[in-house]
Design brief:
Mean pLDDT: 82
CATH topology of the largest domain: Beta-Lactamase
Strand order of the largest sheet: 3-2-1-6-5-4
Radius of gyration: 38 Å
Number of strands: 17
Distance between the termini: 82 Å
Shape: elongated
Length: 554
């Protein structure tokens, strides 16, 4: 009869089943690392697999206190020299475990050099306890001896290193009476301890890079806000930043700038920004409202007049163009200028000279013109209401200013700016609740920033509340239904919105209804979805499905 270890001649010993278990453990751990760098995910599953596949139970990873929280603050930059030679070993605590209760993990704190775990952390040497009952330094702190099997139990503890410094310990219990060699277990644990150190270091590097990027983003955001505040323009929405970018790119040019956009979008602020961002910033900035000048006074206002030019002209007077010499003149509402005056303005722009009313001498002026209008000048040219040659002269650098509807994310910052300014001017202390700010963000604002500023001023002057609710805000918004129920006005016992949205079939809304909702909310999918009782994801899914079916883009 052959002995258990005998084998046919010429055939090698078959691999023991432990080898397959080791390979499975390693492949599963590496698969986890490929999916996530979060230590709390990978470490616990690694300890779980150690128990299930290799019988290495109650595994735990103990980390030194200087490692910090799960974010591993500063670990990526830490070097061995950061801890002076001869310095006391750090205290430590169980951070990740499998097979231990929360209470057992909480008890797993070790002072410098305390117990087996503390010694490994202090000496950077692995320790194998063949029998925990025969080792006086084994503390049995986390798990009482009575909770362990009655047979002989071993304890294995290996150091975890990062940048050649021991930052933790990988440890576990092991039953002595096994058909697997202890050296095999130690070899696998060494690999896992190395992997744990690399994972902690990699996660720390990612966290450090993330913090650096976040800090850089904050600096860039503050820089944008500071740059905007320098011109008195508030907001960081993409539409606004695009207009500001165009403005700054042409700030050093001398060509005319035409600001286009709805009434109340801040054309005067942008015109002043053109002036302040140019080399003319220390020279005069003259603003002229063309809609407020009577037709008969246009020439004398813009170009000035000589003494005796008309009845009452007792002295000569320099016009706005002369006063703006070497600086910037802002012609607001340029579309309201009479045709006869347009011809004289064109001549002044082309030749760089003006002639005072009643005068004969040409006066040289170096003025940059910034014009603005809320009208469609191209259509006015077609109808004959605006000179084509003057339009082309002014339209060298057109900049379109976004409406407040296109800057919805700036509404909150603008509202708080107007609120602070009006409170200070009127010695009030009115504040806006989150619901009130949300009401402001949902309003269409046909009058744009001017309407928003006027609304806030009216609110501060007329409200009796120190904290304005959403319901009260509705009373001050033109076109809003003041009687509409507000979330804040509901009684305390009233039920809130359902925690789970009702199920909606994929065909619950026809394509035309989705298009109309999107159109009604200016392309904002979030608000369009809300109006139809859908989540943004449901709304987007339906749009994509319809687009694929029709072969077009909604």
């Amino acid at each position: 009869m052959a002995s258990p270890t005998s084998r046919p001649a010429g055939k090698p010993f078959p691999d023991p089943p432990w080898r397959a278990q080791e390979l499975l453990l390693m492949s599963e751990v590496m698969r986890l690392v490929g999916k996530s760098l979060a230590p709390e995910v990978v470490m616990r599953e690694m300890l779980h697999l150690m128990s299930e596949l290799l019988g290495l139970n109650r595994g735990r990873i103990v980390l030194a206190d200087f490692v910090g929280d799960i974010a591993l603050e500063g670990l990526a930059e830490r070097k061995p020299a950061d801890r002076p030679a001869g310095a006391a070993a750090p205290a430590s605590a169980i951070r990740y475990a499998y097979g231990l209760t929360q209470a057992e993990m909480a008890r797993g704190r070790y002072g410098p050099g305390e117990g087996i775990t503390g010694r490994v952390l202090a000496t950077a040497q692995p320790i194998i306890v063949q029998d925990i009952d025969a080792e006086p330094q084994f503390l049995a702190r986390s798990v009482a001896r009575a909770q362990l099997p009655q047979e002989v139990v071993a304890f294995i503890a290996l150091p975890i290193e990062v940048n050649r410094e021991v930052i933790g310990v990988l440890a576990c219990h092991r039953i002595r009476s096994r058909d697997r060699q202890l050296n095999d277990d130690v070899a696998v644990l060494k690999i896992l301890a190395t992997l744990a150190g690399q994972l902690l270091q990699l996660q720390a590097l990612v966290a450090e890079k993330t913090r650096a990027l976040q800090a850089r983003n904050q600096l860039l955001t503050r820089a944008l806000e500071t740059a905007a505040a320098r011109y008195g323009i508030i907001g960081t929405s993409p539409a606004l930043l695009q207009a500001l970018g165009e403005l700054e790119r042409v700030s050093e040019a001398t060509a005319s700038v035409l600001l286009l956009g709805e009434s109340g979008t801040g054309k005067e602020l942008f015109a002043r920004a053109v002036h302040l961002s140019s080399q003319r910033r220390d020279q005069p900035f003259i603003k002229v409202n063309c809609a407020a000048i009577p037709d008969t006074l246009f020439e004398s206002e813009l170009f000035g007049y000589e003494r005796g030019a008309f009845t009452g002209a007792q002295t000569a007077r320099a016009g706005w163009f002369e006063q703006a010499d070497k600086g910037t003149i802002f012609l607001d509402e340029i579309g309201e200028m009479p045709l006869a005056m347009q011809a004289k303005l064109l001549r002044a722009l082309q030749e760089g000279t003006i002639v005072r009313l009643g005068g004969k001498r040409e006066i040289k002026v170096a003025v940059r013109v910034v014009a603005a209008t809320n009208r469609d000048l191209a259509q006015d040219v077609q109808r004959g209401g605006f000179r084509r040659d003057l339009f082309y002269r002014l339209n060298v650098i057109p900049i379109r200013l976004p409406s407040l509807r296109e800057r919805a994310q700036d509404i909150r910052a603008l509202a708080l700016h107007f609120l602070s300014r009006t409170n200070q001017a009127n010695q009030r202390n009115v504040n806006l609740s989150p619901a009130a700010l949300q009401r402001l963000e949902q309003h269409p604002w046909p009058g744009n920033i001017r309407e928003l500023g006027n609304t806030i001023e009216r609110l501060v002057l007329l409200t009796d509340s120190a904290m304005v609710s959403g319901g009260e805000m509705a009373r001050f918004l033109p076109g809003e239904d003041a009687a509409a129920p507000a979330a804040e006005a509901a009684p305390a016992h009233a039920p809130g919105p359902p925690l789970v949205r009702d199920y909606q079939a994929a065909q619950s809304h026809p394509a035309e209804q989705l298009r109309q909702a999107l159109l009604a909310h200016g392309g904002n999918q979030s608000r369009a979805a809300q109006s139809l009782g859908l989540t943004v994801r449901q709304f987007s899914y339906r749009l994509k499905k319809i687009a694929l079916h029709n072969g077009d883009n909604l």
